């Protein structure tokens, strides 16, 4: 699929945006793992109180928790950035909200929008 065939706001665009977000988070994770993982853990702890473990979201959150608590940074980085259906599924319930600043998120969205229209 070429970039021109991706429509802004479509599922493909949102999947690309989520991947771009996780690539940026992965870069931050390699430079400041303690801060990134603390934010992810806080999000997971809060969200796991809201979702039953057997719900689709609950299962994904528990999967993220297991990845994070494994302390295997290479596996975590690979999972969060893999460009597959499985990677897309996981990124839909990402615990990395709050890792990037609002300005960084806006710049990321703008860049993805420009890539979509070129």
Percent strand equals under 5%
For the record, give the distance between the C-alpha atoms at the N and C termini, rounded to a whole number: 14 Å
The radius of gyration is: 15 Å
What overall geometry do the principal axes of the alpha carbons give? globular
Count of separate structural domains: 1
Number of helical stretches of at least 4 residues: 6
Low-confidence stretches: none
Structural class: mainly alpha
The proportion of residues forming helix, as a percent range, comes to over 70%
Main sheet, how many strands, which sense, barrel? Answer: none
The number of strands is: 0
Q: Calculate the mean pLDDT score and round it.
A: 90
What is the N-to-C order of secondary-structure elements (H for helix, E for strand)?
HHHHHH
Protein architecture, described:
- The protein is globular and about 40 Å long.
- The longest helix is centred in the first third of the chain and has 21 residues, at 11-31.
- Helix 1 packs antiparallel against helix 4 (73-81).
- It starts with 10 loop residues before the first helix and ends with a helix.
- The mean pLDDT is 90.
- Helices cover 70% and strands 0% of the residues.
- It has one domain (3-117).
- The protein is built from six helices and no strands.
- It is mainly alpha-helical and 118 residues long.
């Amino acid at each position: 699929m070429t970039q021109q065939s991706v429509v802004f706001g479509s599922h493909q665009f949102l999947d690309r945006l989520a991947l771009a977000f996780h690539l940026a988070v992965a870069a931050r994770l390699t430079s400041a793992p303690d801060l990134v993982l603390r934010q992810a853990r806080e999000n997971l702890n809060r969200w796991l109180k809201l979702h039953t473990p057997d719900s689709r979201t609950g299962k994904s959150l528990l999967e993220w928790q297991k990845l994070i608590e494994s302390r295997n940074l290479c596996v975590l980085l690979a999972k969060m950035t893999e460009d597959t259906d499985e990677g897309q599924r996981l990124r839909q319930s990402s615990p990395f909200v709050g890792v990037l600043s609002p300005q960084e998120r806006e710049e990321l969205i703008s860049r993805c929008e420009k890539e979509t229209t070129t």
